[in-house]
Hints:
Layout: H1 5-17, H2 25-33, E1 54-57, E2 60-62, H3 65-75, E3 82-86, H4 92-98, E4 103-108, H5 111-123, E5 129-133, E6 146-151, H6 160-164, E7 166-177, E8 182-190, E9 193-202
Parallel strand pairs: 3-4, 3-6, 4-5, 6-7
Antiparallel strand pairs: 1-2, 7-8, 8-9
Bound molecules: S-adenosyl-L-homocysteine (SAH).
S-adenosyl-L-homocysteine (SAH) is lined by residues 60-63, 86-87, 89-90, 92-93, 107-110, 113, 135-137, 152-153, 205, 207-209, 212.
Amino acid sequence: MTRDYPQARARMVETQLRRRGLRDARVLEAFLRVPRHRFVDPALDGEAYADRALPIGFGQTISQPYMVALMTCALAPERHDRVLEVGTGSGYQAAILSRLVHTVFTIERIAPLAERARALFRELDLTNVIERVGDGSIGWISYAPYQGIIVTAGAPEIPPSLLAQLADGGRLVVPAGSRANQSLLVVTRRGEHYERREETACVFVPLLGKEGWGDD
Ligand code: SAH
């Protein structure tokens, strides 16, 4: 059976995003365009636009559409921005961002996930996504500073390296808390001051690595 993906996306955007208060037109447009079903296992095709996170292998998940959208809005992406994503996973969040900003740098620690995402970026012609394998808890110094940094795994506390790699006026979106549950924090850099607000409660897979939970 061939599914009507554009229709499934339109319904997702209306019922899961717009009706829950996410109204940024550019962000919603990105969700209408990016084929989420390409980022999930073909066996889960029927669930691709469902209102939940889905497994992507290696004990990891692609986040619920609403959470991806909420984090994207919290990042307040602008066209000329360079954005760092920590935790490429399926590549879906990076693909959404690629439509909204100038360049997306994304790091994943699990090589096979990174490779799968890289192949998808190429197939979908997302030429402004640069990815690599590594520990993103310490950021990606070569291209710093970033106007936006988004962490899609739960940290024990805000990684200092990520704060340091934020441009003046830049926003860092990071779930922080215990392993079981976190708060989605949004930190805005103002010179050497950092303003911090809490967006919502959330549950993410752990951020491992040097400034995460350690390497286990
Ligand atoms: N943004 C992803 C969500 C992936 S889940 C998506 O749209 O699908 C979080 C990902 O973070 C997992 O793939 C996990 O392997 C990765 N991760 C955890 N700790 C990391 C670290 N220190 N550096 C890079 N990636 C990390």
